[in-house]
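Bumping my old thread because nobody answered last time. Still need a sequence for this structure:
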């Protein structure tokens, strides 16, 4: 009696883009042929079939062509106020994903100015245009805060009475 054994493996690979899963279906066929002699008409074959399915979650590389460990810079906010600079932030490509705080590529100062005077600037001057006899000119100042002046009215010059 002679025996011949054959194995056949087939693979089917399916990528589901909507669920980001990769499915590999493996078909195993095992065939055993049995014969009672070289010229024997009686042959017996046994076929064993198995199927195994393996699913992998597809790794989406959001870093694009960036190499692992690459960093990118931006801002952690789209706006800032007053004299504060735009806050910088950094992300690092780790495992195909950008890791770190959300990045904004632009940042603008949303603080309002007082006409031509920028927010935070101080205007120095005097409380009155003239000082009383024997008294010095009284200094004064006002500050531009987000589009509004804070402080008394300021006169640019003062003359002392003789």
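Sorry it took so long. Here it is:
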């Amino acid at each position: 009696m002679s025996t011949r054994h054959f194995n056949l493996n087939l693979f089917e690979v399916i990528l589901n883009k909507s669920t980001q899963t990769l499915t590999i279906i493996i078909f195993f066929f095992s065939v055993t042929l049995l014969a009672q002699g070289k010229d024997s008409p009686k042959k017996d074959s046994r076929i064993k079939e198995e199927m195994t399915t393996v699913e992998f979650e597809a790794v989406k590389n959001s870093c694009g062509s960036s190499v692992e460990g690459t960093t990118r810079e931006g801002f952690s906010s789209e706006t800032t106020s007053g004299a504060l600079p735009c806050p910088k932030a950094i992300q690092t490509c780790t495992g195909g994903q950008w890791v770190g705080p959300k990045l904004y590529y632009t940042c603008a100062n949303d603080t309002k100015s007082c006409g031509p005077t920028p927010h935070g600037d101080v205007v120095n001057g005097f409380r009155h245009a003239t000082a009383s006899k024997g008294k010095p000119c009284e200094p004064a100042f006002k500050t531009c805060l987000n589009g509004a002046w804070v402080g008394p009215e300021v006169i640019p010059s003062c003359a002392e009475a003789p």
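The radius of gyration is 41 Å. Let me know if any region looks off to you.
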